[in-house]
Design brief:
globular; 7-stranded mixed sheet; binds pyridoxal-5'-phosphate; Aspartate Aminotransferase, domain 1
Length: 393
């Protein structure tokens, strides 16, 4: 388990926004540097310079595959999670619809990341697809029976995220996968927020496509991957040089691929070393401290058990989330609202879970990570409670 301070992460403000992005692990940075120096060549070149980068790329792909229980050839590297989601949703739906000669029907659910919802919308407007958006319950979970009832003869793809980025709620993917398997429908899961935080194994989950995002697991921004189960057809979004098994043309970004591989290797070791329970304890300590300081005013959202260990989605009665964070500059976190040109609207995720607007606008997303300590969460609780007392005074 990592306990030393991150060299670039100050102790104040307390960084509790790991679901937005994680700091780069210094070990990841060290691992990628050779690919920015001597191993700079194009891995597809035929001369001697290419051997090093080609080896690094293959090793990185194998590390990502190992974290997911996949085969290296099932990993398609992309430039972002949004791109991986688009490749999965559009690419797999269109390929399956072409093969089956149907107008595609895709099932998703209301709390998906905008990357998935936008890919569905694109399928609808540009490709005439029919899209079903399933509801969630008060804890943010989809009912697998609802997936079963929504499947029709033309359903080609179901896309349900593994963990929600705002609440941390984990979806019942294994149960949904059983439904999809039985009905011959492909299943994609966006695991951007769960990979590296909880065990993620593509066979145990039973998924056909799975999104992994580097900057949520201590690699830099701008690298991600899509797991594509062997035999699943996907139409490419970008054609050209045939890289990434013909699914994503473009000279490979070897330094970032190496970073993702190193991040995957470290995540596997940290998971085995108890990082999940450590974060869950800190998350629960933070919630308990807040509740102790503000009796009766603290409400936690999301599933009480099936939830990411490091995510605390919480609202405090009598506060407005963005005002509380503005009054508490020593805590760096996110709110449950979206800000458009200065006006705040309640988060679509919380609204879909049935939260009243005022509660959603009061919500904070406090997300912990590899270098978060007990002292950090204790300090954050005291600072937020003081800010909340000020707000209600
Ligand atoms: C659940 C989820 N999916 C996809 C993405 C998009 O990843 P990227 O920022 O790499 O496009 C994010 C990032 O916020 C996310 O949380």
């Amino acid at each position: 388990m990592t306990t030393a301070r991150h060299p670039d992460l100050p102790s104040r403000p307390v960084y509790l926004d790991h679901n937005a992005t994680t700091p780069v692990d210094p070990r990841v940075l060290d691992a990628m540097l050779p690919a920015l120096r001597g191993d700079f060549a194009n891995p597809s070149s035929t001369h001697a310079f290419a051997a090093g980068p080609a080896r690094l790329l293959a090793a990185a792909r194998a590390e990502v595959a190992a974290l997911l229980g996949a085969r290296p050839e099932e990993i398609v590297l992309t430039g972002s999670g949004s791109e991986a989601d688009a490749l999965a949703v559009r690419g797999a739906a269109l390929a399956a619809a072409t093969r089956r000669g149907v107008r595609p029907h895709v099932i998703t659910q209301v709390t998906e990341h905008p990357a998935v919802l936008a890919a569905c919308e694109e399928l609808r407007t540009r490709h005439g697809a029919r899209i079903t958006v399933l509801p969630v319950d008060a804890e943010g979970r989809v009912e697998p029976a609802d997936v079963a009832s929504a499947i029709t003869a033309d359903t080609v793809l179901v896309s349900v995220m593994h963990a929600n980025n705002e609440t941390g709620t984990l979806q019942p993917i294994t149960e949904i996968a059983a439904v999809c398997r039985e009905r011959g429908v492909l299943l994609h899961t966006d695991a951007a927020q769960s990979v590296g935080k909880v065990p993620v194994d593509v066979d145990a989950l039973g998924v056909d496509l799975l999104t992994v995002v580097g900057h949520k697991m201590y690699a830099p921004k701008g690298v991600a991957a899509l797991y594509v189960r062997r035999g699943v057809a996907v139409h490419p979004l970008v054609g050209g040089g045939g890289q990434e098994h013909g699914l994503r043309a473009g000279t490979e970004n070897v330094p970032h691929a190496v970073a993702l591989g190193a991040a995957a290797r470290i995540a596997r070791a940290e998971l085995a070393d108890g990082e999940g329970p450590r974060l869950a304890d800190l998350r629960d300590r933070l919630a308990a401290r807040l509740a102790g300081l503000l009796p009766g005013r603290v409400h936690v959202h999301g599933h009480p058990v099936h939830r990411l260990p490091g995510t605390l989605n919480v609202h405090i009665d009598g506060t407005v989330g963005h005002e509380l964070l503005a009054a508490t500059p020593d805590v760096a976190a996110s709110t449950g609202s979206a800000c458009h040109s200065g006006s705040h609207t309640p988060s679509a995720v919380l609204t879909a879970m049935g939260l009243p607007g005022t509660d959603a606008l009061a919500t904070l997303r406090l997300s912990l990570g590899r270098w978060t300590t007990q002292a950090d969460v204790d300090l954050a609780a005291v600072l937020l409670a003081a800010g909340a007392d000020g707000a209600s005074a």
